[in-house]
Amino acid sequence: MDIIENLMRFGLTRQESTLYVQLLAEGAMTGYEAAKATGISRSNAYTSLAGLVDKGAACTVDGTPTKYVPVPAEEFLEKKIGSLLQLKNQLIASLPDKSQSEEAYITIKGEENICHKIESLIKSALQRIYITGEAPLLSPFMEILKKRAQEGIKVVVITDALVEDARIISYRSPRPAGQIGVITDSEAILTGEIPSGGNASCLFSRKKNLVDLFKTSLSNEIKLIQLTGK
Question: Which of 61, 91, 134, 139 could form a disulfide with 67 if both were Cys (CB 3.0 to 4.6 A apart)?
C-alpha cells in the first residue's frame, strides 16, 4: 500500500503527507528537524507543516523553537471522513441530477469503478438483488450481500461455489470466466466482464427492455438449474 498516495486522498499534499508520516514515526519535531529528516527544503517544510496544522493533522507545541506534533492517525482520518460525509449530503441535496435517465446505456470501465457501482447498487436496493459470477469475482461483495439479506432484502446469487448463508438464496452453476451481472429491484442492471488481465468493462442501464431481458435470462437459467441440478 502506498501510504503517501492514500494520505493524499484525504486532502494532504505529497509533502504534507511525507511530513505527517515522519511526525507519526518520530513524534514532536521542529521544522528544521522535519526538513532534515525528510529531505524537504526548510521553506517548503515550514509551509507544509503549517498546512498540516490548518488541516487538522498536526498541532504546535508552545516553546522556542516551535515544535509540531501529529494528531493521531485514527483521529485525523475519522474527522476527515466525517467532514466528507457531511459535505457529501450537502452536495447531494444541492447538485442537479440527471444520472437516473432510463434511456441511457452507460459503459463503465475499470475494475475499481465497476466494483464501486456494484456496491452502490447493492446498498441502494429496496427489495431484491440478483447477482451472478464466479466466486472470486463475487467474494468482495459477499459481506454486504449478507448484510442486505439480514435486513430483509431478497438476495439471489448464482455462482460456481457454495454460499454458506441460509438467508441468501444461492444456485450453484459454472460461470463464464470474468463475467459478472447484477440486477436490483427489476429497475437497474449492470453486466459485463472483469477479466483477470485487466480491461474491465461493464454496461449499466435502467432501460426497461434491457432490465427485462436480463431478468428473463436469469429466471430461465434458475429454472434450468432447478430442473437439472446443474
Answer: 61
